[in-house]
Amino acid sequence: VFVELPVQNNEDWETHEPVINRNGDFFSVNIASDDHPMEVDHHIAFVILQYEKGYRVVYFDEGEKPEVKFYQDEPVIAVYAYCNQHGLWCIEA
After folding, report:
1. How many domains does the chain have?
2. What is the pLDDT at residue 9?
3. What CATH number is given to the structural domain containing 39?
4. I need a labelling partner for 11 at 20 to 30 A (CA). Which of 17, 22, 86, 87 fits?
């Protein structure tokens, strides 16, 4: 079952913004705020990387730093981050 979530765009942007870093063919994504809570009641639950031909989803556990590092084998179109308190956040790649 696919559920469409509204993308947020408000004053909480600075603490939820997915940040994309490229270094040649290597790619990393983290959340702009290094101090975003990663507790049971408030955390970044997952990051979605959107490609032309599909998606990659990376889930995070409480206490884990919400960061993704990988070899970029195809162009990333957008990155989404989901906070269990404040919803879905997106940035175009």
Report:
1. 1
2. 63
3. 2.60.40.730
4. 22
